């Protein structure tokens, strides 16, 4: 993927700011952290994230994972998204992620993308771990939705879903709870965890 050391495209054109193509040979978990440590502040994904019915779910999950984890670090991500023509407003499930540069598929793609851009801000859908509980705060739907669980199984399932897991291998009761709250995205046979664990706060956490 193409990387640069600044958010501003003009600054990225200065000598030494373009980091070039950066290979990520390691596991998907931790890729965003490795890019951050290399100095990347602007990243361009090499291929669109394709969520159409005939696409490769593994490739889609890899791209989504990068966008989510880089969004959590407030890294500027340039990416494209493809949806099925009948996807409707399914993009809203992804509206806590940085808006893509291009959205293809739905007939109202341009209007949807403009709405996504206008309504996006950091910390829109996140999860955090407290002493003996996990909590998700979700504002994708225009108001605050909170989901709190103190059973250790919920945190373990989040760890499994973080970069996608076969849905049939995940405890059904927990997965059903997360699906009811629209906290997981089904991609082919996989279920993928939507909220991110924020790495950079815009303001004091007490105000979030």
Keywords:
208 residues; alpha/beta; 4-stranded mixed sheet; 6 helices; globular
What does this structure look like?
By secondary structure, the protein is α/β, with parallel strands linked by helices. It folds into two domains: 2-119, no CATH class; 125-207, no CATH class. It has helices at residues 9-12, 31-37, 57-72, 109-119, 152-161, 172-180; strands spanning 2-4, 18-21, 42-44, 49-50, 76-78, 80-82, 102-104, 125-130, 133-138, 145-149, 165-166, 184-187, 190-193. The longest helix is centred in the N-terminal third of the chain and has 16 residues, at 57-72. The two termini are 32 Å apart.
Question: How do the strands of the widest beta sheet line up side by side?
Answer: 2-1-3-5
- The whole-angstrom Rg is 17 Å
Which segments are poorly predicted (pLDDT under 50) over 5 or more consecutive residues?
none
Order of helices and strands: EHEHEEHEEEHEEEHEHEE
Helix content: 25-40%
Whole-number total of structural domains:
2
The average pLDDT is 89
Strand content: 15-25%
Number of strands: 13
Largest sheet: 4 strands, mixed
> Count of helices?
6
Structural class assignment: alpha/beta
Distance between the termini: 32 Å
Taken from the alpha-carbon principal axes, the silhouette is: globular
